[in-house]
Prior knowledge:
The model has no long low-confidence stretch (mean pLDDT 94). This protein is mainly beta. The protein has one helix at 101-107; strands at residues 6-17, 21-24, 32-44, 53-66, 72-83, 88-98, 121-129, 142-149, 156-166. The protein is globular and about 40 Å long. The longest helix is centred in the middle third of the chain and has 7 residues, at 101-107. The protein has 1 helix and 9 strands.
Amino acid sequence: MSGFPSLQPAMTVLVTIDPPMSVGSASRGTPVAVVPMTGGSVKTESSFSPELDAEFVGTGADYIHNDPSGEHMRLNAHGVLKNKDGAMVYVNYTGVVDITPELGAILGGSPEAKTTDFGNSFIEMRFETGDEKLKELETSTFVGAGRFRYEQGKPVVVEYKLSKVVKG
């Protein structure tokens, strides 16, 4: 169909998270929860350029507000990556996650928890860098679908498959 954009598979993002810290909110109506992002990686697909093969450094955070209905979480995550060549990249993503029983089991630490399917979490990711080789990341639009990977006794990992939005 004319005028609609297409998606070019671009990269896989893995974000290791710790349990949320409930901060609350005296004025917003819905509390904010801060989820520490303690590790992870971003790796481009072999056919995608510019190449990014990076690890999260330092501690990032996802500032989450649940909708009043309790059916969705609103994400606002910030972190820093270090590419294998030493280039530093700031990342920010926003998105919406459906709060499903499966996700509730993971976030609640249920012994019945298991990895979710892709399709309950969608994001837009932005990049900023001072590295000329990666500059194109700043002028592109990336969208992704996510899932929550769960292994008992290990931290939760959120996995996103990102695509670049391109002319249809």
